[in-house]
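Support request, please re-run this one:
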Amino acid sequence: MSTVNTPSAANSTSPASPSSPGASAPRTPGRFGSLGPVGLVLAGGISVQFGGALAVTLMPRAGALGVVTLRLVAAAVVLLLVCRPRLRGHSRSDWGTVIVFGITMGAMNGLFYEAVDRIPLGPAVTLEVLGPLALSVLASRRALNAVWAGLALAGVFLLGGGGFGNLDPIGVAFALGAGAMWAAYIVFSARTGRRFPQADGLALAMAVAALLFLPLGIAEAGTRLLNPTTIALGSAVALLSSVLPYTLELLALRRLPASTFAILMSLEPAIAATAGFLILGQSLKPAEAAAIALVIAASIGAVRTQMGRGKAALPAEGQ
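Re-run finished. Output below.
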Protein backbone atom coordinates (compact mmCIF):
# COMPACT_ATOMS: atom_id res chain seq x y z
CA MET A 1 0.00 0.00 0.00
CA SER A 2 1.19 -0.56 0.49
CA THR A 3 6.09 1.47 -0.52
CA VAL A 4 9.03 3.99 -0.28
CA ASN A 5 12.47 3.08 -1.62
CA THR A 6 15.84 3.23 -0.05
CA PRO A 7 18.21 5.51 -1.92
CA SER A 8 19.68 2.70 -3.97
CA ALA A 9 16.33 1.28 -4.90
CA ALA A 10 14.76 4.62 -5.59
CA ASN A 11 17.57 5.78 -7.75
CA SER A 12 17.14 2.75 -9.97
CA THR A 13 13.53 3.83 -10.54
CA SER A 14 12.42 0.24 -10.31
CA PRO A 15 8.99 -0.73 -9.04
CA ALA A 16 9.01 -0.82 -5.28
CA SER A 17 6.46 -1.17 -2.59
CA PRO A 18 4.74 1.75 -0.90
CA SER A 19 5.86 0.24 2.28
CA SER A 20 9.56 0.22 1.44
CA PRO A 21 11.67 2.16 3.90
CA GLY A 22 12.05 5.47 2.24
CA ALA A 23 15.50 6.67 2.08
CA SER A 24 16.04 5.72 5.62
CA ALA A 25 14.53 3.56 8.28
CA PRO A 26 15.05 3.02 11.95
CA ARG A 27 17.90 0.92 13.24
CA THR A 28 16.66 -2.50 14.12
CA PRO A 29 17.53 -5.56 16.19
CA GLY A 30 19.86 -8.01 14.51
CA ARG A 31 17.76 -11.10 15.27
CA PHE A 32 15.59 -10.49 12.20
CA GLY A 33 18.64 -10.97 10.00
CA SER A 34 18.46 -14.74 10.53
CA LEU A 35 15.56 -14.85 8.04
CA GLY A 36 17.92 -14.04 5.16
CA PRO A 37 17.49 -11.03 2.84
CA VAL A 38 14.88 -12.63 0.56
CA GLY A 39 12.93 -13.86 3.57
CA LEU A 40 13.03 -10.37 5.07
CA VAL A 41 11.63 -8.80 1.89
CA LEU A 42 8.87 -11.39 1.58
CA ALA A 43 8.02 -11.01 5.29
CA GLY A 44 7.80 -7.25 4.78
CA GLY A 45 5.50 -7.68 1.77
CA ILE A 46 3.27 -10.10 3.65
CA SER A 47 3.12 -7.68 6.58
CA VAL A 48 2.11 -4.79 4.32
CA GLN A 49 -0.65 -6.62 2.49
CA PHE A 50 -2.12 -8.32 5.54
CA GLY A 51 -2.01 -4.92 7.23
CA GLY A 52 -3.99 -3.60 4.27
CA ALA A 53 -6.52 -6.39 4.66
CA LEU A 54 -6.86 -5.57 8.36
CA ALA A 55 -7.40 -1.92 7.41
CA VAL A 56 -10.34 -2.92 5.20
CA THR A 57 -12.01 -4.62 8.17
CA LEU A 58 -11.51 -1.44 10.17
CA MET A 59 -13.17 0.84 7.59
CA PRO A 60 -16.76 0.22 8.79
CA ARG A 61 -15.64 1.58 12.18
CA ALA A 62 -13.74 4.68 11.07
CA GLY A 63 -14.10 5.09 7.30
CA ALA A 64 -11.25 5.08 4.79
CA LEU A 65 -9.88 8.50 5.77
CA GLY A 66 -10.20 7.68 9.46
CA VAL A 67 -8.15 4.49 8.98
CA VAL A 68 -5.49 6.41 7.04
CA THR A 69 -5.33 8.97 9.84
CA LEU A 70 -4.93 6.30 12.53
CA ARG A 71 -2.22 4.54 10.53
CA LEU A 72 -0.23 7.68 9.80
CA VAL A 73 -0.52 9.13 13.30
CA ALA A 74 0.49 5.87 15.00
CA ALA A 75 3.40 5.32 12.59
CA ALA A 76 4.55 8.94 13.00
CA VAL A 77 4.55 8.66 16.79
CA VAL A 78 6.59 5.44 16.69
CA LEU A 79 9.11 6.76 14.16
CA LEU A 80 9.53 10.11 15.93
CA LEU A 81 10.13 8.36 19.26
CA VAL A 82 12.60 5.89 17.75
CA CYS A 83 14.46 8.28 15.44
CA ARG A 84 14.23 11.55 17.42
CA PRO A 85 15.08 13.54 14.27
CA ARG A 86 17.09 16.74 14.55
CA LEU A 87 15.01 19.78 13.58
CA ARG A 88 17.80 22.33 13.31
CA GLY A 89 20.49 22.65 10.69
CA HIS A 90 18.32 21.96 7.63
CA SER A 91 17.92 24.33 4.69
CA ARG A 92 14.65 25.56 3.21
CA SER A 93 15.23 23.19 0.33
CA ASP A 94 15.59 20.29 2.78
CA TRP A 95 12.32 21.16 4.46
CA GLY A 96 10.61 21.66 1.12
CA THR A 97 11.68 18.20 0.03
CA VAL A 98 10.52 16.45 3.20
CA ILE A 99 7.19 18.32 3.16
CA VAL A 100 6.49 17.28 -0.44
CA PHE A 101 7.54 13.74 0.50
CA GLY A 102 5.04 13.79 3.37
CA ILE A 103 2.25 15.17 1.16
CA THR A 104 2.96 12.49 -1.43
CA MET A 105 2.97 9.80 1.26
CA GLY A 106 -0.35 10.98 2.65
CA ALA A 107 -1.95 11.23 -0.79
CA MET A 108 -0.73 7.76 -1.76
CA ASN A 109 -2.19 6.20 1.38
CA GLY A 110 -5.43 8.14 1.19
CA LEU A 111 -6.09 7.28 -2.46
CA PHE A 112 -5.20 3.61 -1.92
CA TYR A 113 -7.47 3.21 1.10
CA GLU A 114 -10.32 4.87 -0.80
CA ALA A 115 -9.68 2.33 -3.57
CA VAL A 116 -9.74 -0.76 -1.33
CA ASP A 117 -12.95 0.55 0.22
CA ARG A 118 -14.52 0.07 -3.23
CA ILE A 119 -12.66 -2.73 -5.05
CA PRO A 120 -10.92 -5.95 -3.90
CA LEU A 121 -7.41 -5.71 -2.46
CA GLY A 122 -5.66 -7.78 -5.17
CA PRO A 123 -6.92 -5.75 -8.16
CA ALA A 124 -6.31 -2.50 -6.25
CA VAL A 125 -2.63 -3.32 -5.67
CA THR A 126 -2.32 -4.52 -9.28
CA LEU A 127 -3.58 -1.17 -10.58
CA GLU A 128 -1.45 0.72 -8.07
CA VAL A 129 1.77 -1.02 -9.14
CA LEU A 130 1.30 0.44 -12.64
CA GLY A 131 2.67 3.74 -11.29
CA PRO A 132 6.14 2.42 -10.38
CA LEU A 133 6.08 0.23 -13.50
CA ALA A 134 5.48 3.29 -15.71
CA LEU A 135 8.29 5.11 -13.91
CA SER A 136 10.68 2.23 -14.55
CA VAL A 137 9.70 1.97 -18.24
CA LEU A 138 10.02 5.70 -18.86
CA ALA A 139 13.33 5.93 -17.04
CA SER A 140 14.83 3.08 -19.04
CA ARG A 141 13.79 4.32 -22.53
CA ARG A 142 14.60 0.96 -24.10
CA ALA A 143 12.52 -0.56 -26.89
CA LEU A 144 12.12 -3.80 -24.94
CA ASN A 145 10.11 -1.91 -22.34
CA ALA A 146 7.33 -1.52 -24.91
CA VAL A 147 6.81 -5.27 -24.47
CA TRP A 148 6.50 -4.91 -20.71
CA ALA A 149 4.14 -1.95 -21.08
CA GLY A 150 2.03 -4.03 -23.48
CA LEU A 151 1.88 -6.91 -20.99
CA ALA A 152 0.81 -4.54 -18.23
CA LEU A 153 -1.91 -3.02 -20.41
CA ALA A 154 -3.14 -6.50 -21.32
CA GLY A 155 -3.32 -7.29 -17.63
CA VAL A 156 -5.28 -4.12 -16.91
CA PHE A 157 -7.67 -4.97 -19.79
CA LEU A 158 -8.26 -8.44 -18.35
CA LEU A 159 -8.65 -7.05 -14.85
CA GLY A 160 -11.41 -4.73 -16.03
CA GLY A 161 -13.18 -7.43 -18.01
CA GLY A 162 -12.63 -5.44 -21.18
CA GLY A 163 -14.02 -2.21 -19.74
CA PHE A 164 -13.90 -2.34 -15.95
CA GLY A 165 -17.54 -3.33 -15.85
CA ASN A 166 -16.80 -5.67 -12.93
CA LEU A 167 -14.99 -3.05 -10.84
CA ASP A 168 -16.21 0.21 -9.35
CA PRO A 169 -14.83 2.86 -11.74
CA ILE A 170 -14.29 5.30 -8.86
CA GLY A 171 -12.28 2.65 -7.02
CA VAL A 172 -10.24 2.05 -10.18
CA ALA A 173 -9.56 5.80 -10.48
CA PHE A 174 -8.44 5.95 -6.85
CA ALA A 175 -6.10 2.97 -7.34
CA LEU A 176 -4.54 4.53 -10.46
CA GLY A 177 -4.15 7.81 -8.58
CA ALA A 178 -2.42 5.94 -5.76
CA GLY A 179 -0.07 4.44 -8.35
CA ALA A 180 0.84 7.89 -9.65
CA MET A 181 1.55 9.01 -6.09
CA TRP A 182 3.61 5.85 -5.55
CA ALA A 183 5.83 6.82 -8.49
CA ALA A 184 6.25 10.33 -7.07
CA TYR A 185 6.86 8.78 -3.66
CA ILE A 186 9.82 6.81 -5.03
CA VAL A 187 11.39 9.96 -6.44
CA PHE A 188 10.97 12.04 -3.28
CA SER A 189 11.99 9.17 -1.04
CA ALA A 190 15.39 9.15 -2.74
CA ARG A 191 15.71 12.93 -2.53
CA THR A 192 14.80 12.90 1.15
CA GLY A 193 17.31 10.15 1.84
CA ARG A 194 20.11 12.21 0.34
CA ARG A 195 19.28 15.21 2.52
CA PHE A 196 18.51 13.63 5.92
CA PRO A 197 20.55 11.10 7.93
CA GLN A 198 19.26 7.64 8.82
CA ALA A 199 15.46 7.65 9.29
CA ASP A 200 15.11 11.36 10.15
CA GLY A 201 13.56 12.33 6.82
CA LEU A 202 11.13 9.43 6.88
CA ALA A 203 10.00 10.24 10.44
CA LEU A 204 9.50 13.92 9.60
CA ALA A 205 7.65 13.12 6.37
CA MET A 206 5.38 10.70 8.24
CA ALA A 207 4.59 13.48 10.72
CA VAL A 208 3.72 15.83 7.83
CA ALA A 209 1.42 13.18 6.33
CA ALA A 210 -0.25 12.58 9.71
CA LEU A 211 -0.88 16.30 10.25
CA LEU A 212 -2.24 16.59 6.71
CA PHE A 213 -4.77 13.81 7.24
CA LEU A 214 -5.77 14.53 10.82
CA PRO A 215 -8.49 17.10 9.88
CA LEU A 216 -9.81 14.77 7.15
CA GLY A 217 -9.98 11.81 9.54
CA ILE A 218 -11.73 13.87 12.20
CA ALA A 219 -14.22 15.18 9.64
CA GLU A 220 -15.09 11.66 8.47
CA ALA A 221 -14.90 9.64 11.69
CA GLY A 222 -15.26 12.22 14.46
CA THR A 223 -15.25 10.75 17.95
CA ARG A 224 -15.09 7.20 16.54
CA LEU A 225 -11.33 7.75 16.27
CA LEU A 226 -11.19 7.83 20.07
CA ASN A 227 -12.74 4.39 20.51
CA PRO A 228 -10.13 2.19 22.27
CA THR A 229 -10.76 -0.79 19.98
CA THR A 230 -10.48 1.41 16.89
CA ILE A 231 -7.24 2.92 18.19
CA ALA A 232 -5.82 -0.54 18.90
CA LEU A 233 -6.72 -1.85 15.45
CA GLY A 234 -5.39 1.31 13.79
CA SER A 235 -2.12 0.92 15.67
CA ALA A 236 -1.91 -2.70 14.49
CA VAL A 237 -2.39 -1.49 10.90
CA ALA A 238 0.41 1.06 11.40
CA LEU A 239 2.70 -1.64 12.80
CA LEU A 240 1.97 -4.11 9.99
CA SER A 241 1.86 -1.62 7.12
CA SER A 242 4.57 0.87 8.10
CA VAL A 243 6.91 0.22 11.03
CA LEU A 244 7.57 -3.52 10.63
CA PRO A 245 8.05 -3.48 6.81
CA TYR A 246 10.43 -0.49 7.03
CA THR A 247 12.52 -2.45 9.52
CA LEU A 248 12.59 -5.72 7.57
CA GLU A 249 13.24 -4.12 4.19
CA LEU A 250 16.05 -1.94 5.50
CA LEU A 251 17.80 -5.02 6.85
CA ALA A 252 17.28 -6.83 3.54
CA LEU A 253 18.68 -3.99 1.45
CA ARG A 254 21.94 -4.11 3.38
CA ARG A 255 22.62 -7.52 1.79
CA LEU A 256 20.39 -7.58 -1.30
CA PRO A 257 20.88 -5.75 -4.63
CA ALA A 258 18.26 -3.07 -5.22
CA SER A 259 17.27 -4.71 -8.52
CA THR A 260 16.54 -8.04 -6.81
CA PHE A 261 14.62 -6.18 -4.11
CA ALA A 262 12.44 -4.51 -6.77
CA ILE A 263 11.71 -7.85 -8.46
CA LEU A 264 10.53 -9.26 -5.13
CA MET A 265 8.37 -6.18 -4.63
CA SER A 266 6.70 -6.93 -7.96
CA LEU A 267 5.07 -9.93 -6.27
CA GLU A 268 2.96 -7.65 -4.06
CA PRO A 269 -0.24 -7.97 -6.15
CA ALA A 270 -0.15 -11.75 -5.64
CA ILE A 271 0.46 -11.33 -1.92
CA ALA A 272 -2.39 -8.80 -1.75
CA ALA A 273 -4.75 -11.17 -3.55
CA THR A 274 -3.82 -13.93 -1.08
CA ALA A 275 -4.42 -11.63 1.89
CA GLY A 276 -7.73 -10.52 0.42
CA PHE A 277 -8.81 -14.13 0.03
CA LEU A 278 -7.69 -15.34 3.47
CA ILE A 279 -8.86 -12.37 5.55
CA LEU A 280 -11.63 -10.75 3.50
CA GLY A 281 -12.95 -13.71 1.51
CA GLN A 282 -12.23 -11.89 -1.78
CA SER A 283 -11.82 -14.65 -4.36
CA LEU A 284 -10.41 -14.01 -7.83
CA LYS A 285 -11.94 -15.04 -11.14
CA PRO A 286 -9.59 -16.81 -13.58
CA ALA A 287 -9.34 -13.67 -15.74
CA GLU A 288 -8.42 -11.55 -12.71
CA ALA A 289 -5.74 -14.05 -11.64
CA ALA A 290 -4.32 -14.00 -15.19
CA ALA A 291 -4.36 -10.19 -15.14
CA ILE A 292 -2.37 -10.08 -11.91
CA ALA A 293 0.12 -12.59 -13.36
CA LEU A 294 0.60 -10.39 -16.46
CA VAL A 295 1.25 -7.27 -14.41
CA ILE A 296 3.71 -9.14 -12.19
CA ALA A 297 5.50 -10.46 -15.30
CA ALA A 298 5.64 -6.95 -16.75
CA SER A 299 7.07 -5.56 -13.52
CA ILE A 300 9.74 -8.26 -13.28
CA GLY A 301 10.62 -7.81 -16.95
CA ALA A 302 10.98 -4.05 -16.59
CA VAL A 303 13.21 -4.45 -13.55
CA ARG A 304 15.43 -7.02 -15.29
CA THR A 305 15.73 -4.77 -18.35
CA GLN A 306 16.76 -1.87 -16.14
CA MET A 307 19.20 -4.16 -14.32
CA GLY A 308 20.75 -5.26 -17.62
CA ARG A 309 21.12 -1.66 -18.70
CA GLY A 310 23.04 -0.91 -15.48
CA LYS A 311 25.40 -3.84 -16.04
CA ALA A 312 26.05 -2.75 -19.63
CA ALA A 313 27.00 0.70 -18.40
CA LEU A 314 29.59 -0.56 -15.91
CA PRO A 315 32.56 -0.92 -18.33
CA ALA A 316 32.11 2.64 -19.60
CA GLU A 317 31.98 3.94 -16.06
CA GLY A 318 35.24 2.15 -15.27
CA GLN A 319 37.16 3.67 -18.14
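The mean pLDDT is 76. The chain is about 75% helix and 0% strand.
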